[in-house]
Amino acid sequence: MLYGTSAAAVGAVISLLIPPTYVVRAELALNSPTQVALGASLLGLAQQFGLGASGGAGTGDFLLALFTSEDVLESVVQTSFPRSAYVDFFRTDCAAAADQCDPIHIWEIDGKNKRDTLERAARKLSHAVSVDLNPRSGIIGLSVEARTPKLALALAQRLIQLADSANLEFQREQAQNQFRFMQERVEATRMALQAAEDTLAAFDIANRSVQSSPMLLRLRARLERKVTITESFYVQLTTGLNQVYVAAANNVSTVGIVQSPSCRVEKIGRSEHSLPSSPSC
């Protein structure tokens, strides 16, 4: 009985000493990738040349990886957040009179050198970030833990902003590669169409009595069919080129917010207490 009472007392003391951790949860949906603008046949053609790879920019898996990528995490920890995000911290390396401070100094990260410090801060953030992808709905779940609700919210919002920006840039780069490829195909097909039309015209000039010869009729039918097929392919490519041009110039956000970042859970020690969306968050 005494042992149980002592353990409970120790547990209560520890729970008071361990600072609460606030978790911000957001749900995101990926806006239509740039490849959707391409027709299936055009995308298949681009993929043959390695320009429309599935799993690349504009996919859920790619965006998922961006949230925990080294570049994004390092950018987040170098971002200065308002004083209200860390004012409740007992101790930080932030200047007392500063209006804002970055997580490196908020968390008092001190490495062997500047690079080591940055890597340690990014690693600490990676441990506070959790992302998952629902394969059926395509919804991406993002959770970020922090000592204060406002810092958790600020980190989550910055993560979304940077991941969205990086994803958009990769999509634009991919679309630009596709555009250059399509330009080359359009020009090559235009020249092939012109050559096919010239060949048919030369045949008609050289064979004015084609109607009286079954063999000449078959030859002309083949030449005409080649013109028709090449022309159809040229029109298809030209349409695709216009669509890829629009995708390459896209500057619209690639991420749609299904559930805005909000504080949902406060963890104290090993216990969890559900909270409504906190006004202070």
Give structural notes.
With about 280 residues, this protein is of the alpha+beta class. The chain has a domain at about 20-180 and about 255-275: 2-Layer Sandwich (Bacterial polysaccharide co-polymerase-like), CATH 3.30.1890. It has eight helices and seven strands; from the N terminus they run H-E-H-H-H-E-E-H-H-E-E-H-H-E-E. A five-stranded antiparallel beta sheet has the order 4-5-1-6-7. Strands 2-3 form a two-stranded antiparallel ribbon. A hairpin with a 5-residue loop joins strand 4 and strand 5 (about 140-145). The longest helix has about 60 residues, at about 150-205. The two termini are about 40 Å apart. Residues about 1-5, about 5-15, about 35-40, about 50-55 and about 270-280 have low confidence and may be disordered.
